[in-house]
């Protein structure tokens, strides 16, 4: 039987004593516990918890813009940025019977805490069939007309994928973020060969005359026989390389994390190099024998490559933060976009900023310049800029930057 | 914060290069360096904890005396802290100061070991020593675990090495518990000898249980690299405390030859009876001051 006794009998301090007696200790105890709680929250908040491992990718598909970012893949109308509807065989808009609304070309992956995520552009591998590389080590087939994922489990791949796939005829090349490059058959995705690198391949290889030029985070650029996977040569560039080399006038141009830009011959010899202030991530761009590149502390470089080696025309600190994507040349302007939330239009001759636009978010993804054509019905050239902003995922600017964005696509 | 972060990322990368591209060894050495740099804070924290504990009997007397007057009790307590030069938050302050270091280290490990393009982008521009770029990217794999990710519990049971995450969690919990046990001064049971249970001791004990559990939870939630920091930091803490304690006892023993009155650690009380012998550094095993206050000592009270 439970008996209740008073506090004195139990030898407990009286209420007043309890209240006063341990105030200090309780304060310290509660303080330390609070400290731990704040620490846990801060650690999570400071690091943003599970952040996106990569940025978006923009491409064109059948006259529409195809945007892939994280769990979403969708098509937008380049005229006004509206989502593209799905059409049936008769050309009528498909409707959702439950809501009686038009169905859009959109794939929104789910999967709880680890959903399928896309950061690369899908490839057209057969009639009405797209192949998407998901970050979580899967190749996923999508029916193009209906935006239907054929099998969400897809084909397992032995690594994450952060670079676009490359297709040449019946062969599919898959760069793996941890290490190695795979060659698979387009039909059935069975492995033809596997080329070994010691670190990841974060850029799509350049294919030229049956040779794949592969850059790797292991500091090497490799030339690989595209048919057999045999290594033809390798060159140590003393720093990680995260971009695809650019071919121009029979030479390869690439920047790396050793703060250098290189000109390399097709047989693997360094012809020229140029020191930059910081890492160069994006692929350089060349127009009229002038190479333009940017680094991760916001500098932009213009180098004359018409003679021997690199001859500096100008270098300017343009942005206050990293310029990750490749610059874009449009007429007499050079466009760069930065993590400082701005897109800059520069005078190609002098490097002076002509105009800049605030996109209210970091720009990490490659920009895309689209121009009117038979299949692309737009009134003027547009520059597409994707951001990491929580407000807008995509901006379409007039290519010369002379006006406010033509349209925005919200996140 | 960015300045601390850049220094940490640079130092981690530098150690990685020096120690033959071994990231775990680099984190261990880095942790030892951080613990050495924060040693003055650790000493202050321990000194404060000990002093507070020595004052407990006195505080209890005050609490009994002013149990019906909280305001007066508070004033008297503060007066006592002032008298002995004790900051009641002295035990927490060093923890607060270490807070930004801890957060920066967490971010630095993830940045230095960047495994994804977005993480790598954050590493760019942070290396303060020219030439360190050549070791980027750092190897983030250790015993089959990604040092930037929490331990993968889903693989447990698939092979012998798959049990390493469990070992890691146990090590974090065990070393945290051990450090707590070693560094917390031994409680004097029922110092007020009134037969009433010592709740302060109970609180300490519960903290000794909660802290390891919390750190084990952190291990499950945060990167493996940070867990290595926890383990090494705890071990270094144990060694540091043992050395500090040994030196303190040695000092106390050598001072024991002389006659001593009292002081608590920290500042000398402002009002104390003067004594010639008390002008020397002195210590007594379990001294009591003139007012019956429990004391330890480092510096003797000065005559006024």
Describe this structure in words.
The complex is a heterodimer of chains A (411) and B (304). Chain A is mainly β and 411 residues long. Among the domains of chain A are: 53-156, Thrombin, subunit H (Beta Barrel), CATH 2.40.10.480; 329-411, Beta Barrel (Thrombin, subunit H). Helices cover 9% and strands 39% of the residues of chain A. In chain A, strands 7, 8, 9, 10 and 11 form a 5-stranded antiparallel β-sheet that branches. A 4-stranded antiparallel β-sheet of chain A has the order 1-2-3-6, with no helix packed on it. Chain A has a 4-stranded antiparallel β-sheet with strand order 12-13-14-15, with no helix packed on it. Chain B has 304 residues and is mostly helical. Chain B folds into 2 domains: 2-190 and 197-255, no CATH class; 258-304, no CATH class. Helix content of chain B is 58%, strand content 1%. Chain B has helices at 2-18, 23-37, 39-54, 56-65, 70-84, 93-112, 117-123, 164-183, 199-221, 224-255; strands at 141-142, 145-146. Chain B has a two-stranded antiparallel ribbon with strand order 1-2. In chain B, helix 1 crosses helix 6. The two termini of chain B are 46 Å apart. In chain B, 36% of the residues are buried. Residues 259-304 of chain B have low confidence and may be disordered. At the A-B interface, helix 2 and helix 3 of A face helix 4, helix 5, helix 6, helix 7 and helix 9 of B.
């Amino acid at each position: 039987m439970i008996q209740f006794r008073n506090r004195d009998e139990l030898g407990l301090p009286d209420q007043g004593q309890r209240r006063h007696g341990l105030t200090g200790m309780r304060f310290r105890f509660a303080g330390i516990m609070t400290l731990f709680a704040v620490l846990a929250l801060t650690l999570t908040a400071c690091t943003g918890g599970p952040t996106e491992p990569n940025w978006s990718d923009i491409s064109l598909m059948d006259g529409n813009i195809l945007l892939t970012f994280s769990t979403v893949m969708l098509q937008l109308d380049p005229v006004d940025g509206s989502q593209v509807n799905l059409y049936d065989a008769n050309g009528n808009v498909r409707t959702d019977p439950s809501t009686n609304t038009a169905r859009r070309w959109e794939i929104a992956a789910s999967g709880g805490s680890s959903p399928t995520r896309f950061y690369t552009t899908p490839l057209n591998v057969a009639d009405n069939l797209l192949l998407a590389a998901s970050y979580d080590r899967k190749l996923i087939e999508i029916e193009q007309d209906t935006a239907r994922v054929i099998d969400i489990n897809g084909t397992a791949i032995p690594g994450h994928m952060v670079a676009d796939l490359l297709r040449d005829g019946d062969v599919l090349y898959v760069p793996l973020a941890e290490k190695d490059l795979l060659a698979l058959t387009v039909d059935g995705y069975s492995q033809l060969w596997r080329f070994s690198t010691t670190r990841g391949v974060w850029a799509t290889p350049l294919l030229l005359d049956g040779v794949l030029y592969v850059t790797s985070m292991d500091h090497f650029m490799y030339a690989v026989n595209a048919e057999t996977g045999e290594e033809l040569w390798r060159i140590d560039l003393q720093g990680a390389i995260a971009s695809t080399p650019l071919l121009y006038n029979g030479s390869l141009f690439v920047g790396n994390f050793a703060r250098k830009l290189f000109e390399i011959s097709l047989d693997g010899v360094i012809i020229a190099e140029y020191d930059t202030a910081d890492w160069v991530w994006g692929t350089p761009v060349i127009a009229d024998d002038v190479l333009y590149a940017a680094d991760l502390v916001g500098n932009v470089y213009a180098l004359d490559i018409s003679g021997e080696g690199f001859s500096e025309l100008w270098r300017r600190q343009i942005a206050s933060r990293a310029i990750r994507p490749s610059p874009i040349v449009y007429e007499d302007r050079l466009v760069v976009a930065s993590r400082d939330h701005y897109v800059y239009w520069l005078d190609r001759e002098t490097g002076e900023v002509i105009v800049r636009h605030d996109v209210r978010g970091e720009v990490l993804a490659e920009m895309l310049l689209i121009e009117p054509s038979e299949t692309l019905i737009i009134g003027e050239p547009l520059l597409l800029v994707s951001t990491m902003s929580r407000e807008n995922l995509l901006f379409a600017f007039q290519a010369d930057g002379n006006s406010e964005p033509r349209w925005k696509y919200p996140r | 914060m960015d300045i601390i972060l850049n220094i940490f990322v640079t130092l981690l990368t530098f150690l990685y290069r020096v120690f033959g591209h071994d990231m775990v060894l680099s984190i261990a050495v880095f942790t030892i360096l951080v613990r050495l740099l924060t040693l003055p804070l650790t000493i202050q924290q321990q000194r404060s904890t000990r002093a507070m504990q020595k004052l407990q009997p006195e505080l209890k007397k005050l609490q009994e005396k002013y149990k019906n007057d909280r305001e007066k009790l508070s004033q008297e307590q503060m007066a006592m802290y002032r008298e002995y030069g004790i900051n009641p938050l002295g035990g927490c302050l060093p923890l607060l100061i270490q807070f930004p270091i801890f957060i920066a280290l967490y971010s630095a490990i993830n940045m230095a070991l960047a495994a994804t393009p977005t993480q790598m982008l954050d590493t760019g521009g942070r290396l303060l020593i020219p030439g360190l770029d050549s070791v980027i990217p750092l190897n983030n794999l250790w015993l089959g675990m990604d040092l930037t990710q929490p331990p993968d519990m889903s693989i447990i049971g698939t092979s012998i090495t798959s049990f390493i995450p469990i070992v890691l969690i146990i090590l974090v919990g065990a070393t945290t518990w051990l450090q707590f046990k070693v560094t917390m001064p031994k409680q004097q049971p029922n110092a007020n000898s009134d037969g009433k249970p010592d709740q302060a001791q109970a609180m300490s004990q519960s903290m000794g249980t909660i802290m390891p559990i919390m750190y084990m939870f952190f291990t499950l939630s945060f990167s493996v690299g940070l867990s290595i920091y926890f383990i090494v930091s705890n071990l270094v803490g144990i060694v540091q405390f043992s050395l500090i304690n040994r030196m303190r006892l040695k000092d106390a023993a050598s001072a024991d030859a002389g006659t001593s009155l009292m002081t608590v650690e920290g500042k000398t009380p402002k009002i104390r009876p003067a004594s010639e012998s008390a002008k020397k550094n002195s210590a007594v095993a379990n001294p009591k001051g003139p007012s019956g206050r429990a004391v330890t000592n480092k510096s003797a009270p000065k005559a006024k």
